[in-house]
Amino acid sequence: MVAVPIVGAMGRIDDTRDDALGAGARTRRSGRTAYDRRWRAELRSALRCAALLLVMLLVIDRVSGGASWWRAALWLALSLLLVLVLVPRRVSAGEGLLASRGLFGTRRVRTDRLVSVRCLDGVCRRLVLRDVSGTRVELDPQVLVDNPDLWYLLDEGARRSEADGVLLCGATALRHIQDRIDRETARAVFRGSGLD
């Protein structure tokens, strides 16, 4: 792409080069952003679980006759620890960018400059995205299945990375997620039409 100087409102030449910015920087200005729609419900569920645990422990202490202020403080600390474990990371995506915000900070990865995408199996499945700067974001693939807008923006950036030859590893993992999303969408259509 050839850089063309643009005369701004003040009559000065804006020599910002589009090819230096890259496709991701140009498109992020358009303002499309998607968020995890189920995050608030999962947050409420985590808070309810912690509150239920606290109430149960306090009631058991009261019934057993072992209630004291230091035990109540211990149960409160245990409930707060449960909240820290259960609070989900908030995932959002814009054109060329995916962010995962937790209690202790936000991690961002450039989806239009992805180097690798790996799916880790274990107790809980995780999708690990890494960009050219070495930044890494982990997220639950179910978040992408539940939020087609997030998936669309991630897939759009990953396709750009693959077309630019930057994405070296992970096209297969992305295809597996795409297949899973397609299956879930087909099931929802069949359920909605009464064919299930």
Integer count of domains:
2
Helix content: 40-55%
Number of H/I helices? 6
| DSSP strand tally | 9
Q: TL;DR?
A:
The protein has about 200 residues and is an alpha+beta fold.
Considering the chains and any ligands shown, give keywords for the structure.
elongated, 4-stranded antiparallel sheet, 196 residues, alpha+beta, 3-stranded antiparallel sheet, PH-domain like, disordered N terminus
Task: Explain this structure.
α2 (39-64) packs antiparallel against α3 (69-86). The termini are far apart. The longest helix has 26 residues, at 39-64. The protein folds into 2 domains: 28-35 and 91-193, PH-domain like (Roll); 41-86. It has 6 helices and 9 strands. A 4-stranded antiparallel beta sheet has the order 3-4-5-6, with helices on one face. The protein has a 3-stranded antiparallel beta sheet with strand order 7-8-9, with helices on one face. It is α+β, with helices and mostly antiparallel strands and 196 residues long.
